[in-house]
What does this fold into?
Amino acid sequence: MIIIETERLLLRTWEDKDIEPYFQINQDPKVIEFLTGPLTMKEVTDFISFVNKQFDEIGYSVWAAEEKSSGKLIGYIGLDPIKWNPPFGKAVEIEWRLGSEYWHKGYATEGAKACLDFAFNKCGLKEIVSFAVPANIRSIRVMEKIGMQRDINGDFAHPKLPADHKLSKHVLYRMNREEFNKLCTK
It folds into this structure.
């Protein structure tokens, strides 16, 4: 089911045909550079099942991102309630993970902007966060391009990783509904 359509993307619920391409995306060393490792096929199928169920239950999720022109799965873009207890409080995160061949084309920015609109104007969410390892400049640039602001006081060590792990430190970005609406009126 198509949830969001942009000029070049369809953000939709996941289908069985997405399993293999999403598995391949998560084997690419460039894609998993800031993750703890590649996903197994079971992790991929469990993820797809979970996010589709999450959409059915709460009305948003991380959706399969399909390139309109080719019909190919390019990764995911969407909204995900944080399931652990972050130091900055319970929140909904905007996320993206695209195959490296789709980087530098503006897809993450295009899809993320549409997800913000969906979050604030369809779901009535009050705030969205995003975070990344400081070295993940590509994701940080997307956060900035979509209008999110860095919360320097919110930077944190990820509680799911040892404090001395190279991926533990994260920078936090935020955006609330009022900030989004101001950007839309410019």
